[in-house]
Amino acid sequence: MNAISDPGPALLEVRGLSKSFGTLRALQEVDFTLRAGEIHALLGENGAGKSTLIKAVTGVFPRDAGIVRLGGVEVAPRSAKAAVDAGIATVYQEVNLLLNLSVAQNLYLGRQPTRFGLVREAEMRRCAAALLAEFDLHIDVAEPLGNYSVAVQHITAIARAVDQSAQVLILDEPTASLDRHEVEILFAVMRKLAQRGIGVIFVTHFLDQVYEICDRITVLRNGRLIGERTTAELPRIELIRMMLGRELAETTSERTAAHARQVGEICARFEDYGKAGYVAPFNLALRRGEVVGLAGLLGSGRTETARLVFGAERADSGSATVDGKPVRLQSPRDAVAHGFGYCPEERKTEGIIADLTVRENIVLALQAKRGLAKPLSRSEQEGIAMRFIGLLDIRPPEPERPIGLLSGGNQQKVLLARWLATAPRLLVLDEPTRGIDVGAHAEIIRLIRDLCDDGLALLVISSELDEIVTYSDRVVVLRDRAHVDELEGDAIDISNILAAIAVAGSAGAEAGQP
Amino acid sequence: MMSRLLQSRGLAQIIALLVILAVDRAVSPQFFDLRMQDGRLFGSLIDVLNRGAPVALLALGMVLVIATRGIDLSVGAVMAISGAIAASLADAHGLPLALAAALGAGLLCGLWNGFLVAVLGIQPIVATLILMVAGRGVAQLITEGRIVTFTAPDLVWLGNGAVLGVPAPVVVVLGMLIVTGAVVRGSALGLLIEATGGNARASELAGIGTRGMILAVYVWCGLCAALAGVIAAADIMGADANNAGLWLELDAILAVVIGGTSLFGGRFSLVLAMVGALIIQAMNTGILLSGYPPEFNLVVKAAVVLVVLLLQSPRFANVGVVLGRARQ
Question: Over the stretch A167-189, which tens digit does the pLDDT of each residue have?
């Protein structure tokens, strides 16, 4: 499928790797090839399977199927430590080093030079300084690591990994917390390592950085390999299409239902709404019976917009009005009182309360809205639960089952039911179809359409562009934590969204995550 | 069938209580004997209820705190404070003022703990450790290092009187259990506490005012502790700031955990926490009656607690299943 111009010697070969968690197939027969001396970007949206691939290769999880060869020899590390011993080292975004120990101690932790059982501090410091000098880093290695910047901490972690005879170095989002200058330092180190013949896997969501430093790109989506290309031959718009969309031809005809819908009056309006360092001020009007899609890459400000709208983060500029009246959204509680609802992306940690039953999870938001003094009786709760179990076809239809035992799709339906029970005017759905199997996926999309026909305003975030195009009446495009474009009516198609996202953002690295 | 029965909620605790009572009966044949004297019931069983009252009151507040995934280590110290206040004021100012001042102090202590946990976001174990240490010092300052005694008859009655033959401390516990149960299960508070303890972030996003709720449970816990302190002082007609309520916070936590409420928060049961307090006291009384030196008490208690907790542990249940299979 892919024309690979320079088939250099393969250093790390992954073939047919599969991994499932319960019924969720996180990786399906993924192939990946890393050549010696190259910097290889591993890209994909949240849930695409990047982390799972790394963890399956480095032995953090056992793999279900597939083989990994390092320099032609099959390896199957049982733990991250075994992977390091085999020559595959990983440096994560959160540096796993001890900030209270000195730089030298961190570099040689667990393998200190000793004489007669005593650590040779001076020898260790001399080696550490020499090791870091190879990376053009000249610092006092006796200082605690915590006194240095995050970039130095990363380079220390990399130096430690490489010094332990790594042939393959995996960098998982190393630049997320670095400023532009620090990124340059890190890139210089990466280039130096590549020249030494080490294969570097670079996981990131900053596309500008990919084009700056990577030789080759592998894209994953929904646990599958989408393709491997050389950076020089892959235009940015094509890359984004690989990450977000299906083939264009598949989706053009699907946009039918959205056209026929009647859009009502404005029910919530946000003007110059924003928070410094979080999302740039934006204008957003939401009408009854209308679906507004938020499109953009990971980290572009989609979830941040949703959290501001729902009061989970406090805006520091602009104003919000509900039905024409000004409101203050200081907390989710305020938002719920004004008839908002929010299904977060992190369903397990922010959505469900796993120990409670389906019934209790469904009535929770309604009960919170009614207040302590007006409890729903057990029979009222059961009535509400059974109504939504029937309406949304939640399976198994047992209101007393703990929600943690349901499948992802059914948990999502319970969360939808939680908000529908409050009769909301605006529902914010963040990645409503993430981690849900194909059948439930279609059902959730059908539900979204039905809800709008009933006059609800919906703000939907999705990484699946074909999905957004299918149900949205308007699409807001975000890039670098700002709303950059708005598409309406016939202008909504994947290629227009991609074009709006793909404009090379000069501020890609600086705007990074907090 | 058998396994289904064992899984039903509370059965393990009730069986444990019955077993301990049976053992008590074995070491002390007159254990179940009751007699009426001066309008008050006497007997070992009544002793268990009466002596268990302070821990039961503490457990009543503690169970709500633990359900929110918190813990309150300061309840023993709060008992000392409230006991000292009640004892100092009772003779000169009468019961109503003494009681109001003691309970007011407990309320303030609860507000302080709740403020540290809910508003400042300090870990509960550290936040309440502060008052655990400082509170006993405050109590010693109030009593000026002495054991303060009193004779005010209405305060003495709270520790030694009886209603229809039932000792006053037991009546107070029953009353508080009913009030707490009515507030927690009669309103939506119980559900919202369980949700907050189960997943605080999700609860916040569902529109629950988790902060106010956490503050409220610490205040209630402080109030319960203050009441326990008044009863303990009334019982001995004096306040001993050094020893009142000493280590009782641990008994209260044990009672809650034995009652099946997880330290990770979520589901809780008021009644089973009371059963937990009774289990602890039934053991204490049994060991005293058996004639063994009281030093044994702590060791035996530890062993029984270990058994009860093992019975509740899911891993231990798995071990049981594996052993069962091996036998087949």
Answer: 899 998 887 767 777 888 889 88
Residues 341-370 of A with CB under 8 A from B: 342, 344, 349-356, 360, 363-365, 367-370
Whether residue A367 and residue B191 make contact (CB cut-off 8 A), yes or no, is yes
Whether the predicted model's global pTM rises above the 0.90 cut: no
Q: Could you give the CA distance from residue B21 to residue B8 in angstroms, rounded to a whole number?
A: 21
A333 touches B: beta carbon within 8 Å: yes
- A374 interface with B at CB cutoff 8 Å: yes
Burial tier of A237 (Cβ tally within 10 Å: 0-12, 13-18, 19+): middle
Tokens (6 digits) for A114: 């000793």
Domains of chain A, with CATH numbers? 10-100+144-244 (3.40.50.300), 258-510 (3.40.50.300)
Contact flag B205-A351 (C-beta cutoff 8 Å): yes
**Of the candidates A26, A32, A43, A487, the residue with the CA atom closest to the CA atom of residue A244:** A43
Give the whole-angstrom CA distance, residue A452 versus residue A177.
39
Neighbours of A479 (CB within 10 A): 23
Residue A361 CA to residue A370 CA, distance in Å, equals: 15
Q: For residue B155, what pLDDT band results from cuts at 50, 70 and 90?
A: very high
Interchain CB contact of A373 with B (< 8 Å) = yes
Residue of A138, A82, A451, A455 whose CA lies nearest to A288: A455
Give the span between the Cα atoms of A384 and A369, in whole angstroms. Answer: 15
- Provide the percentage of residues in chain A whose pLDDT is more than 90: 34
Q: How many CB atoms lie within 10 A of CB A401?
A: 15
pLDDT given at position A262: 65
Pairing relation of β-strands A73-74 and A24-35?
unpaired
Residue in A332, A369, A370 closest to B205 by CB = A332
- C-alpha distance from residue B294 to each of B52, B148, B283 (Å): 17, 27, 11
Gyration radius of chain A's alpha carbons: 25
* Number of Cβ within a 10 Å radius of residue A101: 14
The Cα-based distances of B183 to A281, A407, B216, B259 in angstroms read: 45, 35, 12, 20
End-to-end CA distance of chain B: 18
d(CA B10, CA B294): 29
CA-CA-CA-CA torsion for A450, A451, A457, A460, nearest 10 degrees? -80
In total, chain A counts a number of residues equal to 514
Is pLDDT of A511 > 80? no
CB contacts of B188 in chain A (<8 Å) are 367, 370-376
Reported ipTM: the value is 0.86
Q: Which residues is A15 bridged to in the sheet?
A: A67
Between chains, do A349 and B205 touch, taking CB under 8 Å as contact?
A: no
Chain B: give the shortest CA distance to residue A378, in Å: 11
Give the alpha-carbon dihedral of B202, B204, B207, B209, to 10 degrees: 140
Q: Which positions in chain A touch B203 (Cβ < 8 Å)?
A: 353, 364
The mean pLDDT value of chain A amounts to: 84
CB B70 within 8 A of CB B117: yes
Joined tokens for residue A207: 């596309």
